[in-house]
From TrEMBL:
One of its GO terms (cellular component) is membrane. Pfam families: GUB_WAK_bind (PF13947), PK_Tyr_Ser-Thr (PF07714). It is a single-pass type I membrane protein. Residues 1-25 form the signal peptide. It comes from the Eukaryota. It comes from Zingiber officinale. The chain crosses the membrane at residues 263-286. InterPro entries: Kinase-like_dom_sf, LRK10/LRL21-25-like, Prot_kinase_dom, Protein_kinase_ATP_BS, Ser-Thr/Tyr_kinase_cat_dom, Ser/Thr_kinase_AS, WAK_GUB. ATP binds at residue 353. Gene3D superfamilies: Phosphorylase Kinase, domain 1, Transferase(Phosphotransferase) domain 1. Keywords: ATP-binding, Glycoprotein, Kinase, Membrane, Nucleotide-binding, Serine/threonine-protein kinase, Signal, Transferase, Transmembrane, Transmembrane helix. Its main location: membrane. This is Protein kinase domain-containing protein. It is found in: Membrane.
Length: 619
């Protein structure tokens, strides 16, 4: 039924998208007034005029070449026969434009009046706000003119003078130049600020304030940057991709957008086709996903129908939301989905794993229910219920308050952690894990191969009793069949048996779990990863080989690993058992029943195993 409904739904979605695109077109197709103004401005004023290699554009205009409204009044540029672009500015007089781009306009001052008294000229024009100095190097000084009733001592660091052209004492006043930052009480007696000032850049080459004032006589050699409000606005227009010009409709400088009419009409047509094509692709993907979800759903329901009545309690998705309080408390994220803490109606705390529909094609769900749905063992986590509703699948487990073994055995590397376990407790945990694996291999109607034994998948209850969890990669086989056929390797790097990668080492069987258990034991006693991928190859230490060499040389592992001396026997026993488990040949690995006997017995009863690997030094 769902497969049939997708087609009218697809058609409705496509029509809605196209109508939405057309409504956008209707909204932007009316006459674009700003676009008309822009075209008119460009037609009358041109985008720019050239003089001596300099492009003159709004707010400037070239005299006698364009209408008056093509530039701001007072910013008319003349072009001499020699190709010099000049402009006459208020109180500055004639100036030559030496630089012109979208970022700045720079001029050079012309005329003898500047040579007579640059400080007077500069101070008189600063308040106009028409131009400012180029502060690129940020090494100038703000100054003020000081009127003194008599000649006074100077200090090159903050006051210099007198300046003859500003005041020579003939009228009882001497003009000095002082740093603007100087306080009033710092001025010499009989001196007051005139309230006139400006900024002097570093022209003279000397380091002091006095050097710069004297060097200001080179005024005619500097380029001055114009500061024009219209120019700032035009710069913003260019950054937005618009055209700067004069709007006669608004009687002011404005950013004129390009005319959109025909361009938008064409854009809408192309956009409509893109939307339609994209919609079809999305609908195709949705259809394929729907078909895949339906196949997985059929696969899961078929499994549950053949599974029988012994399966755990089935819950609806609505129940799952209530149990997890709308997924309020997230415990973690795994390879197949997220885990949330919840509580059943009878008050029992649970962990709810929400499986991602895009991963595993429902196989993890089937594996979990098929393997631990019927079995009960103190060292295997219990599956209390499940949910399968449309594409949603969830598994409900008993809650383990102490989380995983991984957080305890690797905490020894963290000096601030208080989660480390004693060697005696580690031995008890190892025995519990071994009992759980033995039950999976020998105690069920069908043999269950876990294929992912690692610290992360060993959970700890209130009393730190271990429970094997995560059966997503598990495989069922008959108890009288020891060899398992597999197309791809299963498990986690560092714990996968050699035969899973290469059949030359042997066949895949329950002995593959034994290998993983051995690697787990080594990490438990060492409190570290057997192989750390972050360690460089030259300094790499293969931990299992290091343990084997210490045992062969009869060294005291407890002392080397800085443990209590009474832990030495347990440490030695766990090390020998681990090395037996990780033999490269599956036939040389003991069964879990034999491993249990070794763990429960004394250390002397566990013989030294043969070398389980090719030495790194030999390879």
């Amino acid at each position: 039924m769902n497969r049939l409904l997708i087609y009218p739904y697809s058609l409705c979605l496509l029509l809605l998208l196209l109508l939405h695109a057309n409504s956008k077109a209707i909204h932007i197709l009316p006459q674009d007034i700003e676009g008309e103004e822009r075209e008119e401005f460009i037609k009358d004023c041109q985008t720019s005029s050239t003089c001596g290699g300099i492009d003159i554009r709004y707010p400037f205009r070239l005299i006698n070449s364009t209408p008056m409204y093509c530039g701001v009044q007072g910013l008319e540029v003349s072009c001499s026969a020699a190709g010099d672009a000049t402009i006459k500015l208020p109180r500055l007089g004639p100036c030559k434009i030496v630089h012109f781009d979208t970022d700045s306009v720079k001029i050079k001052l012309l005329g003898d009046e500047w040579a007579q008294c640059p400080l007077q000229k500069l101070s008189s024009i600063i308040p106009t706000g028409l131009f400012y100095h180029d502060y690129e190097h940020d090494n100038g000084y703000d100054y003020m003119l000081v009127n003194c009733s008599s000649e006074t001592a100077t200090d090159p660091e903050w006051i210099t003078g007198p300046i003859p052209c500003l005041g020579n004492g003939s009228q009882g006043e001497w003009i000095y130049v002082a740093k603007l930052e100087a306080s009033m009480d710092q001025l010499p007696s009989g001196c007051v600020s005139t309230g006139i000032g400006g900024n002097i850049e570093y022209y003279a080459g000397g380091p002091t304030f006095g050097d710069q004032v004297q060097g200001f006589n080179q005024m005619l050699q500097m380029d001055v940057s114009l500061n024009i409000p219209e120019w700032e606005m035009c710069r913003d227009c260019h950054e937005e991709g618009k055209h700067c010009g004069f709007s006669r409709r608004r009687n002011q400088t404005a950013c004129l957008a390009r005319r959109h009419g025909t361009f938008i009409a064409g854009l809408v047509v192309v956009g409509g086709l893109v939307v339609a094509l994209t919609s079809l692709i999305i609908l195709f993907i949705l259809k394929k996903k729907s078909q895949k979800d339906e196949e997985i759903r059929f696969k899961v329901e078929h499994f549950l129908a053949t599974y029988g009545d012994a399966q755990p309690t089935r819950y609806s998705f609505s129940d799952i939301r209530k149990i997890t309080m709308r997924f309020k408390n997230k415990l973690g994220q795994g390879g197949y989905g997220s885990v949330y803490k919840g509580e059943l109606s009878n008050g029992i705390p649970v962990a709810v794993k929400m499986l991602e529909s895009s991963k595993g094609e429902g196989q993890e769900f089937i594996n979990e229910v098929a393997t631990i749905g019927r079995i009960h063992h103190i060292n295997i986590t219990r599956l209390l219920g499940f949910c399968t509703e449309r594409s949603t699948r969830a598994l409900i487990y008993e809650f383990m308050p102490n989380e995983s073994l991984e957080k305890y055995i690797f905490s020894r590397q963290d000096k601030g952690s208080n989660k480390s376990l004693s060697m005696e407790k580690l031995l008890n945990i190892a025995i519990g894990i071994a009992r759980g694996i033995e039950y999976l291999h020998q105690g069920c109607e069908q043999r269950i191969l876990h294929f992912d034994i690692k610290p992360h998948n060993i959970l700890l209850d209130y009393d730190l009793n271990p429970k094997i969890s995560d059966f997503g990669l598990a495989k069922l086989c008959s108890r009288d069949i020891s060899i398992v056929t597999m197309t791809v390797a299963r498990g986690t790097m560092g714990y996968i048996a050699p035969e899973m990668y290469c059949r030359n080492f042997g066949t895949v069987s329950y002995k593959s779990d034994v290998y993983s258990f051995g690697m787990l034991l080594l990490e438990m006693i060492g409190g570290r990863k057997n192989h750390d991928p972050e360690i460089g190859r030259e300094s790499e230490i293969y931990y299992p080989e290091w343990v084997y060499d210490r045992l062969v040389e009869r060294q005291d592992l407890a002392m080397i690993m800085k443990m209590e001396q009474n832990d030495g026997e347990i440490l030695q026993k766990l090390s020998k058992v681990a090395l037996w488990c990780i033999q490269w040949s599956p036939t040389e690995r003991p069964t879990m029943t034999r491993i249990l006997h070794m763990l429960i017995g004394s250390s002397e009863e566990v013989h030294m195993p043969p070398k389980p690997f090719i030495s790194h030094h030999e390879s």
